[in-house]
Write a structure and sequence with these properties.
Number of helices: 9
Structural class: alpha/beta
Strand content: 15-25%
CATH class of the largest domain: Alpha Beta
Shape: globular
CATH superfamily of the largest domain: Vaccinia Virus protein VP39
Strand order of the largest sheet: 3-2-1-4-5-7-6
Largest sheet: 7 strands, mixed
Radius of gyration: 24 Å
Order of helices and strands: HHHHEHEHEHEHEHEE
Number of domains: 2
């Protein structure tokens, strides 16, 4: 027979146990919430992540694999969007925009036929994606602007894309005169690759980079863009290299003609 005092003690123990369970569940939910917020950090807020560890999560072996574990950017191949790039670069561009430029700005110089612009814009609806190209290169038959429009149209009306058919210096001057406080979170330079052009393409954006930003640079297999990027880093020590991959062949199926990720505040 259970006495009244024994019943009171058992009830107290049960309440204590339930409180412990609730606390444990609440703690686990809180941790899960923190992890989710870290993965989906609002644009403009700092998200600390170890870049090497991130790469090891996204690829089995990022230095040699032809594609990441997540194959979402195959959509460009499936839609027959041709361009000077490969799935690894398209995916990394998309992922950097997702992590650094939510509710922010992606800007590229050298849009060509749109594969890199689409790589930034797809699955990143809240990112303003700006492309600039005057089609002065690789355009003997003058078909690149038509190809760009056709590739963009394959995805319907993408409201987060805007494009300027101008020399990039003129386009940037006009853009920042209209919006002097605009800051760019992810910048992709793929314009002319002489040493002077490459260095100017990185330095012209110095007043407009966000405090926390990513710069994407390709074709670093070539000596001039590689040297210009290294001199940019030397002259601007707040920036550092997160990733630099040179390929043994050009173009290579994994990282095309070499690729570099430069960052500040990350």
């Amino acid at each position: 027979m259970v006495t009244k005092s024994g019943l009171v003690m058992k009830t107290a123990r049960l309440r204590s146990a339930l409180a412990d369970i609730r606390g444990s569940v609440s703690y686990r939910v809180h941790l899960a919430s923190i992890r989710m917020k870290s993965l989906c950090a609002p644009r403009g807020k700092k998200e600390d992540f170890n870049f090497d560890r991130l790469l090891s999560r996204l690829w089995d072996n990022y230095s040699t694999d032809d594609h990441p574990k997540d194959r979402r950017m195959r959509i460009l191949r499936d839609k027959r969007v041709a361009g000077m790039g490969v799935e690894n670069i398209r995916y990394l561009t998309n992922e950097m925009v997702r992590r650094v430029a939510q509710n922010g700005v992606y800007l590229e110089v050298g849009t060509y036929r749109g594969s890199s612009l689409l790589s930034a814009a797809l699955f990143n609806d809240t990112t303003r994606c700006i492309g600039i190209d005057n089609f002065s290169q690789f355009n003997k038959r003058e078909k690149n602007e038509y190809a760009l429009k056709r590739n963009l149209a394959k995805f319907g009306r993408l409201r987060n894309i805007e494009f300027y058919n101008k020399d990039y210096r003129e386009a940037l001057r006009e853009l920042f005169e209209r919006e002097p406080h605009l800051k760019v979170n992810v910048y992709y330079y793929d314009g002319k690759h002489s040493y002077r052009d490459q260095l100017e393409g990185l330095e012209v954006m110095l007043p407009h980079y966000a405090e926390r930003c990513i710069i994407l640079v390709d074709d670093i297999n070539w000596p001039d863009p590689e040297r210009a990027s290294e001199d940019f880093l030397r002259k601007n020590p707040s920036f550092r290299t997160l990733l630099k991959i040179k390929t043994s062949a050009t173009p290579a199926p994994n990282w095309w003609n070499g690729f570099q990720v430069i960052a500040r505040g990350i």
